[in-house]
Amino acid sequence: MKFTAEQIANVLGGTVEGDATIEVDKLSKIEEGEPGSLTFLANPKYNHYIYTTKASLAIVATTFEATQALDVTLIRVEDPYKSFTQLLEYYNQVKLMKSGIEQPSVISENVTYGDNLYLGSFAYIGKNVVIGNNVKIYPNTFIGDNVTIGDDTILFAGVRVYSESVIGKHCVIHSGTIIGSDGFGFAPLEDGSYKKVPQIGNVILEDHVEIGANSTIDRATLGSTVIRKGVKLDNHIQVAHNVEIGENTVIASQTGIAGSTKIGKNCIIGGQVGIVGHITIGNNVRIQAQTGVSRSVKDGEAIQGTPALPYNAYNKSFIHFKNLDKIVKDINNLKKNNKLD
């Protein structure tokens, strides 16, 4: 899809300097611009690229002053970075503007859905499912029985949503993610084998939740596994049964959270973090990457290491660890000189 400079300027509330009829159909970095592409200039360190870029159109600040001749049409705005972000959002909306029910797909009995549904081919919708307005369900997606999906939610290709799950409004679930699979519940028997404990709870995602590709959120044994409003999960994350994650918490890739742990609001959790079960992590907590969390964490703490230590204490200890060989040699020398028992 092509857009003219004038159309883009109208979207951004900017002004065109150059050819208002020039068309673009793709986005590019300013240093990698090519004909037919749109770029932007926000960082003064990149100013020199504006004179060599092959892009057809560039978003710049109203205060930008060219010191050489330009071959690119400009759109002047107050904040180029903010405007480019706005344009990305607009572009994404246009790109995802799909509707209609493709075939083959399956819609089971007693399903209700709102206006402007997009259902991709080879999708399966189970019995008694309720789907809101403007929902997009991409191909090869499975929706189990008795699921609820709120308005303006997107499920990308290959998502699996097990029965009884509840998904709120304005959620985004990326490809390969599984919502509502069984929690890891097994009871040991006297002969050393294990008996599966039925997992009869569900998963609840509140509004404005986004979950990256190939993540798994297990259903509760009883009750619900709950992901609160505004939570953002990266790719390859495991959330076990009966976990609760508080509002606006963000978690990076390859983190695993064991069962029944409660995580507070506005936390930031790095990649490859392991969190044991049945603990409580407070609000506004910062957990550095590759930390192993084996205890409850108070509000506002920043922790690192395995087992986790307060962030500043970990850094001080790490300095000593790097010097450990020298420290041991110094101690041995003192022993040899009979100055230390």
UniProtKB/TrEMBL annotation:
Enzyme Commission code(s) on record: 2.3.1.191
Record-linked InterPro entries: Hexapep (IPR001451), LpxD (IPR007691), Trimer_LpxA-like_sf (IPR011004), UDP_GlcNAc_AcTrfase_non-rep (IPR020573)
Pathway info: Bacterial outer membrane biogenesis; LPS lipid A biosynthesis
Record domain UDP-3-O-[3-hydroxymyristoyl] glucosamine N-acyltransferase non-repeat region: where: 22-89
UniProt cross-references to Pfam families, sorted A to Z: Hexapep, LpxD
Gene3D superfamilies attached to this UniProt entry: Hexapeptide repeat proteins, MurE/MurF, N-terminal domain
Active-site residue numbers: H241 (proton acceptor)
Protein family (similarity comment): Belongs to the transferase hexapeptide repeat family. LpxD subfamily.
Function: Catalyzes the N-acylation of UDP-3-O-acylglucosamine using 3-hydroxyacyl-ACP as the acyl donor. Is involved in the biosynthesis of lipid A, a phosphorylated glycolipid that anchors the lipopolysaccharide to the outer membrane of the cell.
The protein's name: UDP-3-O-acylglucosamine N-acyltransferase
Lineage: Bacteria, Pseudomonadati, Bacteroidota, Flavobacteriia, Flavobacteriales
